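Quick note —
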Amino acid sequence: MSMNNIRTSARLLRFTVMATLSLTVAAVMPGCSTKQHRVGIVSPTIYETTEAETVTASMAVGQPAPFFSLPNQDGKAVSSANLKGSWIVLHFYPEEDTPECVCEATEFTDRLSEFRKMNARVFGVNADTVESHLNFRHKYGLELDLLSDPEYRTMRQYGAHVDTPFGNTNATRIVRSTCLIDQNGHIAYHWPEVRPQGHAERVKDKLAQLQYGATVTSLDSEFDIFIMATLFNMFR
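Predicted structure written out below.
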């Protein structure tokens, strides 16, 4: 069996297995839902816009990242000034204990060791209190640091807290978004709108692409490599 045939078979098998797994995980993990209004398939809400489309509208890439110093779930200050030399992932989320936020946070937690190997620190940021962050981490077994920004200062600097026209007034909202900061303190990539399901993996892939200058393909994961090795041993 040729290597091209193995690759094709691996892609087909991967698609089948991952489609099955995604439905299974969606059924058991809070927030990792297949409902259209949650994963942004055809809903007439803001999630109808894909992540890729919103990135093209971002003018932030290449700019110095705004300074931040915020307390984490333990009350310890986390400052961007002390993180120079590391890549930083700031993922902003609206509210704790909601299905979408649980999904996104658990997916980042599952990949924390991979981010660390890439010299990247991952932080969740929203307006909830330090105590709320601590409870949120404990309830879902989260391992990433959660930063508290009750006055919205950092979120507004990063475009994650915006004014939205509502009748004759302006309402405000927290935008689910992510900013990737390079080791020199510049914004390397920006997702102005985020679909929670699978987002952590997309961030990890983009980080690898930026660090190594290589296009991440569907055969880059350990799971795909395992499939390819299995097929190769079957048909050699």
